[in-house]
Amino acid sequence: MVVKAHMKLVCPVMLNFKLFWISQLLILNLEAEIRALQLDSADLKDNVQESAPVPVEQQATEDHDQEILLPVHNPAKEKAAQENAAKEEAEEEAEANKKRHLNAVFIGHVDAGKSTIGGQILFLSGQVDDRQIQKYEKEAKDKSRESWYMAYIMDTNEEERAKGKTVEVGRAHFETESTRFTLLDAPGHKSYVPNMISGASQADIGVLVISARKGEFETGFEKGGQTREHVQLAKTLGVCKLVVVVNKMDDPTVNWSKERYDAIEQKIVPFLKSSAYNTKKDVIFLPISGLMGVNMDKRMDRNVCPWYSGPSFFEVLDSIEVPPRDNGPFRMPIIDKFKDMGTVVMGKVESGSIKEGDSLIIMPNKEPVKVVAIYCDEDKVKRAGPGENLRVRITGIEDEDILSGFVISSTVKPVPAVTEFVAQLQIIGLPEKAVLTAGYKAILHIHAVVEECEIMELISQIDMETREPIKNKGVRFVKNGAGVVCRIQVTNSICVEKFSDFPQLGRFTLRTEGKTVAVGKVTALSGASSSA
Ligand code: GTP
Ligand code: MG
């Protein structure tokens, strides 16, 4: 690329020079004549001094293109070009050799210890020092929340610290031996489930935190506790692997009891199975203490817990395997945006890759934009691939013209935008005796989109055994546990894909009055507009 740009600059000057050269060749004192011209371009001087004379007839017959393609020797520029090419190659190699990247969402019932574990991870990985911990201890004590000091590392705003509850999804970065992680600390409180959905929709793996403390496990796992809802949402949102950490094992009511740990595992496994997790392949359990940092970065101290000899939390995270990422056309749903020397958007790359200087399009409003800078974790990078959580500075659009749920996508194959689609729904949270009919209104959550929607038509019932629609069998209403094919409408155009083409942008949840009513997948798009 650098070489090409250099050629473009030099060639028009070369052409003038060649015409002059042809006319002057007869005088034979070529070098002297050219020097007499006192060309101030170092390029041209160098070229002339190093080029061998070319016979006149040959030059006369050469066409324009051939003339401008004559080799241009410019040692200084060539060296710079070589250095640049080597630098680009090195950057590409560094990119290729970079540790893999995974997004891990921490989910589970309120107060299970998600933020404490997140804070402990940052402490153990040296991102927070003893002095800062002392500062948090004092602040937590002043707020009568002594034991929350570790959670304060993740819970950064005033409201979160005062109440001891996460509200916004916290973000942090850490590395294990083989993997760079983006940690997404979701809130456990039921009022903030929409934020948890946004966190889980960006995740590759989930860390389900369960409190082993007496009474807390029971409340979290009962109906109405967030453990079940979080697991079902995570599965629907594409979180394919779960690490179940049984936390607070140090608590005096538990005291690293194997019986308590086994009882919890035995209750959770059947539930995970019923939520379509393969508990042999896709789930791993381990006991920890997030507050004490036990069985986290180092293996369990046998004096603390003699019966556990398995891997530590970091080892589990390190060895977790996830399916390969999609390298199709570029898609990055925007989860947030802000102003910082231009417009900056945040999101996870769901497919394809992005480079500085790329021309892309923001859908659904079809705004062409240019990529000015890319930030991955804290670093500025030249390019980034699928799965990365990025901040991207763009030009061509003001931040007020962007809404979360918009998708930056490739201009060649933009993401479809629709106001209506057909979907398969599974009803999971209707109140008892309630039914779902055409005309039902709910909040649709699909990737980073949150939009009001209406069910326009129930098309056919789904056989829950085979998961196939029952043909020629109309349906007027459905109850909890049932499946149905239906047509869903939204007021504003949204970016979605068919689940079969692109699961990340084709799976969704419907919620009303703070409860998850149904989960679903998009099976057909009506009147999609994807042309840029
Ligand atoms: P939400 O964000 O509100 O959903 O809560 P959370 O899951 O992030 O819980 P958080 O980390 O705020 O911790 C809640 C309480 O549990 C705090 O008082 C912590 O000190 C305590 N806690 C967390 N982990 C442990 C642990 O390993 N052992 C003990 N004994 N207490 C813990
Ligand atoms: Mg929290």
TrEMBL record:
Entry-linked CDD domains: EF1_alpha, eRF3_C_III, eRF3_II
SUPFAM superfamilies on file: EF-Tu/eEF-1alpha/eIF2-gamma C-terminal domain, P-loop containing nucleoside triphosphate hydrolases, Translation proteins
Coiled-coil residue spans: 73-104
Annotated Tr-type G domain residues: 99-325
Pfam families in the record: GTP-eEF1A_C, GTP_EFTU, GTP_EFTU_D2
Record's keyword terms, sorted: Coiled coil, GTP-binding, Methylation, Nucleotide-binding
Record's function text: This protein promotes the GTP-dependent binding of aminoacyl-tRNA to the A-site of ribosomes during protein biosynthesis.
Record-stated family: Belongs to the TRAFAC class translation factor GTPase superfamily. Classic translation factor GTPase family. EF-Tu/EF-1A subfamily.
Name the UniProt record assigns to this protein: Tr-type G domain-containing protein
Record organism: Brassica cretica
